[in-house]
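Wed. Picked up where I left off yesterday with Lysozyme g. The coffee machine is broken again, so keeping this brief.
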Amino acid sequence: MRWKIPMHQCMLGTSQFESSSAEKALGVLVDHLVDHRLFCVLRKNHPMYSMLVLLGIAALLGVRASEKIAERDLKAMNHYKTLIKKVGERLCVEPALIAGIISRESHAGTILKHGWGDNGNGFGLMQVDKNSHKPVGPWNSEAHLTQGTNILISMIKTIQKKFPSWTKDQQLKGGISAYNAGAKNVQSYDRMDIGTTHDDYSNDVVARAQYYKKHGY
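Structure written out below (tokens, as returned):
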């Protein structure tokens, strides 16, 4: 299938999903844990060196764990690949990102009971919260994916307005975090995931999305 709209031209397209896991983890370290100039002059005897190494290992382990879970979900995810791509193209959102959220929220539907999860509060592949939204369509339908993706888009736009000085990738990541815990929970870039489920939502979803991007999404 050929895309009518190149995904890199989409408003919500992002370079985050083009990077390898190692590049992403190291990029986070370089960009957000130390100053670029300091990183360039760090040596093994520098007092920050050990901390940087430990943080790098932790980041890489986290990414690999996310990728492993995404890999386990791949077979089930592929049942919805056509729908995910269709919705992503129409709404101009990376299909890999939609897949990353589906993996995180419902393991591609494999943990749901009659389409419901989260003790009966979350509906469908993308776990739309029935307390905040009226679920639309069957739990694994195009209508459901459209609703969930539109909720994500609204969160990204809210974060764009809330943090206009952030880069597009930072705003996107903030929107992903807000999809789980709400826009009010996003107070800063470095700590946006504090308060999300397991305090790792956006990092986990981005890592899973990277995996699905490399597998045809």
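Quick read: Residues 1-9, 19-44, 52-58 have pLDDT under 50 and may be disordered.
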